[in-house]
Design a protein that fits this description.
Blueprint: H1 2-14, E1 17-24, E2 29-35, E3 38-45, H2 47-60, E4 72-80, E5 82-92, E6 98-106, E7 130-135, H3 142-157, E8 161-165, E9 176-179, H4 188-196, E10 202-205, H5 211-222, E11 226-231, H6 236-245, H7 250-256, E12 257-267, E13 273-281, H8 282-290, H9 302-311, H10 317-323
Parallel strand pairs: 7-11, 7-12, 8-9, 8-10, 10-11
Antiparallel strand pairs: 1-2, 1-6, 2-3, 4-5, 5-6, 12-13
Helix pairs in contact: 4-5, 9-10
Length: 324
């Protein structure tokens, strides 16, 4: 099973796969690869072979190999030319067998020149305090954007960057990265207190998940630190409204947020991957709260940007409809 697993992983990594899907059907198991935004057929195997392979994968990820009726998730490090985190998740099906998905994440973060065009944000890293927020759905490149900004802060500005992530999935050399571990007593609340005593210039928070974390992020932003974090929202406007629902005040948001970027990773007609984003500046946020929660008339929304790219022939209308 080790050789079969390594063969699948090698071929998937060579195709720049982000996820490997093992999908049981009536008489066999279909394997599909997520490449960019598309699922492509890879190969098939018998259920007997898959059962053995699944046991091997669960063992490697420290999952309970004897349990088949509950969802499980674990991860381990895989080495192929470089180190990767493999997050292995299983899901019980009505067929009496489990499906499985492997998320492939390079352990070390390297700057990408093709996908991430963030030059217009780099000047924000010179700020002494404030909150820079990246929003969008899962898979829109939010974490990669934060890593890109952090790498710039370390290499170009020689700043001290400390991160709190749940978990740390990609390592940046020269940056202090803390992984949340509630069993060991390492949570966002305790980590915030410790970090603020360690003279950080930039603090990266993996995600604002609830009102408590939102309050701590605001506190850190107001206390003389530049904070980068993410939030699940479909637009810049939606991000502000979500933060209000979490109990933050208009004044707190105006005082702290210096930029919100709502982004997507899209595939162009020539099969390149690009970051497309709407960006709300500090002045735009002032306007939003002073004008009954309305954005400036000249604000370029993500649908506007995508429509323009479609008109120029960079992307097709199908891609536009997918993200609007």
């Amino acid at each position: 099973m080790k050789l079969l697993f390594e063969d699948i992983m090698t071929k998937a990594i060579k195709q720049k796969t982000s996820d490997i899907h093992f999908i049981p059907v009536e008489n066999e198991v279909v394997i599909k690869l997520r490449v960019n935004e598309s699922l492509i057929d890879f190969q098939k195997m018998t259920k007997h072979t898959y059962a053995k392979l699944l046991t091997y994968m669960k063992y490697q990820a420290c999952l309970d190999v004897s349990t088949h009726h509950i969802a499980q998730s674990g991860r381990y490090i895989y080495n192929y030319k470089q180190l990767y985190y493999l997050r292995i998740s299983t899901l019980p099906l009505s067929l009496g067998i489990e499906s499985c998905v492997i998320r492939i994440i390079p352990q070390y973060f390297y700057q990408s020149t093709e996908e991430m065009q963030l030059d217009y944000l780099y000047h924000l890293m010179t700020k002494k305090q404030g909150l820079v927020l990246f929003t969008g759905p899962t898979g829109s490149g939010k974490s990669t954007s934060m890593y890109q900004m952090s790498l710039y802060a370390k290499e170009q500005l020689n700043l001290n960057v400390i991160t709190i992530e749940d978990p740390v999935e990609r390592i940046i050399d020269g940056i202090t990265q803390i992984s949340v571990n509630t069993k060991a007593g390492i949570d966002y609340h305790n980590s915030f207190k410790a970090i603020l005593r360690c003279d950080p210039d930039v603090i990266l928070i993996g995600e604002i998940r609830n009102a408590e974390i939102a309050k701590q992020v605001i506190h850190a932003s107001l206390s003389g630190h530049l904070v980068l974090t993410t939030l699940h929202a479909n637009s810049c406007e939606g991000a502000l409204l979500r933060l209000l629902e979490m109990g933050l005040t208009n004044q707190e948001l105006v005082q702290t947020i210096i930029n919100i970027t709502n982004q997507r990773l899209i595939t162009s007609n020539d099969k390149h991957r690009y970051l497309v984003a709407e960006s709300l500046s500090h002045e735009d946020i002032h306007y939003f709260f002073n004008n009954n929660y309305r954005l400036p008339e000249d604000f370029q929304t993500l649908p506007n940007i995508l429509q323009r790219l479609s008109q120029k022939g960079v992307i097709c209308e199908k891609v536009v409809q997918k993200y609007i």
